[in-house]
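User: Show me an example of a complex going from sequences to structure tokens.

Assistant: Sure. Here are the input components:
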Amino acid sequence: MAPAADGPEDVTVQTVGEIGEFELIARVRRLLGTNERVLIGPGDDAALVRTRETHVLVSTDVLVDQRHFRRDWSTAVEVGRKAAACNLSDINAMGGVPTALTIGLAAPAALPVTWVEEMVRGFVAECAKVGAQVVGGDVTASDALTIAVTALGDAGRPVQRSGAMPGDQVAIAGELGLAGAGFAALSRGFRSPRAAVEAHRVPTPPYAAGPQAAGLGATAMVDVSDGLLADVGHVARASRVRIDIDTERLPLPTPVITVGEALGRDPVSFVLTGGDDYALAATFSAETTLPDDWTVIGTVHDLKADEEPSVTVDGIAFDGDPGHQHYR
Amino acid sequence: MAPAADGPEDVTVQTVGEIGEFELIARVRRLLGTNERVLIGPGDDAALVRTRETHVLVSTDVLVDQRHFRRDWSTAVEVGRKAAACNLSDINAMGGVPTALTIGLAAPAALPVTWVEEMVRGFVAECAKVGAQVVGGDVTASDALTIAVTALGDAGRPVQRSGAMPGDQVAIAGELGLAGAGFAALSRGFRSPRAAVEAHRVPTPPYAAGPQAAGLGATAMVDVSDGLLADVGHVARASRVRIDIDTERLPLPTPVITVGEALGRDPVSFVLTGGDDYALAATFSAETTLPDDWTVIGTVHDLKADEEPSVTVDGIAFDGDPGHQHYR
């Protein structure tokens, strides 16, 4: 038994190295439920998941300790919820409904078993919000705690990044800037404002809005994981258009204003370039009447001769880093 | 530019840290083909993969540098082929046909770009053997090179681990012991026998035999990744039976005998406990006539009162470690 890193002196914690791979898998499996979509669940060579039609959406994200989460900033439940959320969000951004997740866990031998169990509880809780199920995974030893998640989903009318048309309106659903402001606050040693810090720890993707947008005829959609300008930039390039963001129309949450004032930063920058909120940004024809879940924030423009696809802010090029990129 | 670790003196290599996440993804995408099953390929929030029926097989494996592969033992192409193979094998072990893979790559900034490109070429080459396609992935920075792979597949009649019946015959398809003998040889600094060393670097799973076994009415099936006794043990426990292996019927490849003699080890131990060959072990009713791809190696027995499920060797309990387990 190894001493607990941060716990009371007399407490000892059981580590994954002590119980081994097979016992760890057995404990994790006890935390997983099942539903009618899971035809064969965890414990075999592969799981079998029912699809609504004869196709399936699939997306993968890898989260690394100290880069995507910090165990001193977030509880294991929060890490699990966030790891699930960012993958469920990818299915949401296609207009789909998530059905199943797999978890690939590479973890140091010294990691407490309870940390893994709590992380899995976080996965289960987040999946329950959309009716998805953890159907399988893998556990392996590694020096770097790494969580690789794959999400499957049912697609109705899949909404790609490439369909934005000149004249379309650009709209967002969900929060923007809160998680980025929370990250900035935590990085400076603050633990508030609470709404921002919590948004960084556990995002709240607008799960209903993805299929809703597909139903409304969205021409393109993306989830905002790296930053609004960076992710809308993917839509601009895939659709060969210029997208202009009207900053006056951007919702500016009070906690974002608070963090901006405390840190001497323009709060709008959190909304434009802060990632990790997993809001949706979508384009719709100008005639589409949008429900309250969606806020119009810009318009799609034709490219002039020799013009490259881009995102402009109030009509001019953005002078700064549009969002997060690994190795940059 | 960083100096090449093992190359000629004047050569400099471009690293993933130098080109960044988005350029790395763009380069990888150029190496990927497509096929008629891929309705939406890499580059969107999720891929869309056609399924033959209204369900899909899914399996995940995580490979970590220095644990599942060594860059000084294997080329990047070999690492990619093995990472693909062990995941395609999981679909094979369900009697399914693999259709799509995703690759989650966590890599140090100093990793050469060419290493990633060669690894992806390995994935593409292995996938081509079964008509599968790389449809998406993720790239992130990490100190530990980690490759998380998820395989999707079409299931005909899925063969689980839990259906073995007393009286069934136990049979294997594919190689057993070669990869384990190759690993033992490499570990002692040998680079031969070539067939064993190559089997460790790139396994050759019997991809046709999985669906074949399903068609023959296999009652249970598993792929041998941790070791024959360990993996057949999963079938024994899931099916609540005793499985007896008849060592006289086990094929003993010549290179395995060679390694056994050189290292003073019983060559049969490589066949019983060596992993990484990705052979199939399956159970069939005694009446099933098996094609040449399959070799009968044992029988399934009823449990006596109070007897726990187990694997016996020539009728007696095996005295040793049945195979690989992480953290053990």
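The lines above are the inputs; the final block is the predicted structure for all two components together. The two ends of chain A are 40 Å apart (CA to CA).
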